[in-house]
């Protein structure tokens, strides 16, 4: 294993932690080369919605691969992309009339930021300042890092990151401070506000109320500041509704989607925009076009997988599965809340999270111990420092979900109180 030339993401190879070799997956289960069945309790980093290897998505990928694998998307088009764009505009808020393709959540955010700045530039009223929320995560490219929380994970690159306006996270009882800060930033002539609706994922599964989301949207609308919803994690049912924005009746100017867009099978992203964003770039003048592309923009195989995802949402009882899982998550998480050493148990839709230990954050010494504990018990859970969260595929059955919570309860008993002194 140590002889592998692979340099893994978010991995400290110097710690010599074992890296399991996965050979197959099915539903909520992963199977390893050494014969273990591992429960995927984090949907392979938040992407797998319906379960691994959904037959319909697999079939769509196979069929598309035999017909058209890849085609330049500048000045050319293909049916899987056309069908997907029509399908997305049909189920997303009607004001989002335009669909721009890219490959990952990070690129969908880069595209959103460029669209926003392009809009102000085209209006002859250049604005460049982006407003962000404390503890946000929007990806790992330079622009996406710039609008995300600063910390140990991007300290080496700080001089390259652009300045942003940061508003505080709306902790319970302090919501007004968040709204006031946003109002100040908007009044100072911001170009756009980018936010993860209802849940800040990588920031520690921090949940805030729909009413705050609605008020933030209203503040931006009143000030004419573009509102960018990064639903890369929250989209596709994660928070209980297709979009988290739906719970606040919020329609953004720009919407970022990725992760569950293909059901989590292959990489694809879209940045959806309202007509004024598109109109700002629309002219007979080539210098005003939207200057963005990547080689695999709207790859046909990825679009076919996304079309299968939309068909699954249409034809299968996905909303009912989401509702059932949401209810089970809430029940099991609330049972854990009585254990000593557990704090801040919270759930939203299919997401459940809790704090253990002393609250020392991402590099908490507890993180690696928990990771090893879960790995040894054939469970894919990846705590965010001392925050344990469960975000399984919607198809996980009760037995597997019970097993996940039994192991978490064991972990809390083993580490929960001891950490007060470490
Ligand atoms: C994961 C994530 C991203 C980045 O997506 P990638 O596909 O990993 O580049 C952006 N925003 C949010 C909210 C995310 O959770």
Concise synopsis of the structure shown:
The chain is of the alpha/beta class and 422 residues long.
Outline the structure in words.
Catalyzes the transfer of the alpha-amino group from S-adenosyl-L-methionine (SAM) to 7-keto-8-aminopelargonic acid (KAPA) to form 7,8-diaminopelargonic acid (DAPA). It is the only aminotransferase known to utilize SAM as an amino donor. Homodimer. The chain starts with 21 loop residues before the first strand and ends in a 7-residue tail after the last helix. α6 packs parallel to α7 (210-223) and α11 (366-376) packs across α12 (398-415). It has helices spanning 43-46, 55-67, 79-91, 105-122, 142-146, 175-187, 210-223, 275-280, 300-315, 318-336, 366-376, 398-415, and strands at residues 22-26, 29-32, 37-40, 98-102, 130-133, 165-167, 192-195, 199-200, 206-207, 226-230, 254-257, 269-273, 342-348, 351-356, 379-380, 387-390. By secondary structure, the protein is of the alpha/beta class. Pyridoxal-5'-phosphate (PLP) binds next to α4. The site of pyridoxal-5'-phosphate (PLP) has 14 residues, from α4.
